[in-house]
Amino acid sequence: MFVMGHVGCTLGIVVIIAMMVPELRDRIDLRFVLAGALLPDIIDKPIGNIIFASSIGYGRLFGHTLLFVSVLAAIGFFLHGKNQDNTICLSFATFLHLIEDRMWGIPEVLFYPMYGFDLPSRTVTYEHWYDYFATMAVNSYTPSLSYVFVSEIAGICVIVVLCIAFAGNLRKDRKPRPHA
């Protein structure tokens, strides 16, 4: 998945859960959901694919592990008040990121360090650091029936639907002006 796939799919899942469990609506902070939806990639992609591209060359490192999600959840459970809800939103969205990336197919990363302390690596060299992002964007938006392309389109569709619903709610909440 790429950015829109993670953001859209995670938001869609959280909104559906909030609709099914109304008690959660006031406790969900979408800013933390958005941050959690991208957090593993924000941490791992620059480290593995840019900073250590010549030695690691892999963008699924520590942020893509259950250990990372567990640490976030533990922090959330030990906090009290509003910050607890925010951290739990962050850890839940991060967990959804792992599901969306189908991390069960890479158990040595998902269950790190249970399979040992070595993470997968690939040596990929790009001429410039931004070539990685250009390559990913082209691969993500080239029409095909690939998982990445379909998830990006699904994420974009979810975002559009949520924006339309949000705009409709804004209109309903706005009071009509009295005519002069």
TrEMBL record:
The keyword Transmembrane helix applies. InterPro entries: YdjM-like. The chain crosses the membrane at residues 6-24, 61-80, 145-167. Keywords: Membrane, Transmembrane, Transmembrane helix. Pfam families: YdjM (PF04307). This is LexA-binding, inner membrane-associated hydrolase. The lineage of its organism: Archaea, Methanobacteriati, Methanobacteriota, Stenosarchaea group, Methanomicrobia.
